[in-house]
Amino acid sequence: MANKLTFSAAVDRWAQAQLQARKDQGREALRGLRKDILNTLGELELPQLRKGELVACLDGIVARGSRRQANVALRELKQFFSWAEAREWIARSPLAGVDKAHVGGPEAERDRALSPAEIVLLRDQIARWQLDSPRPAAHRSHADGRKRRAWRRDRALPEPQRSAQGRAHLPERQAAEAPGTELVAIGDGLAAEQQEMD
Question: Most Cβ neighbours (<10 Å): which of 44, 122, 181, 188?
Answer without folding.
Answer: 181
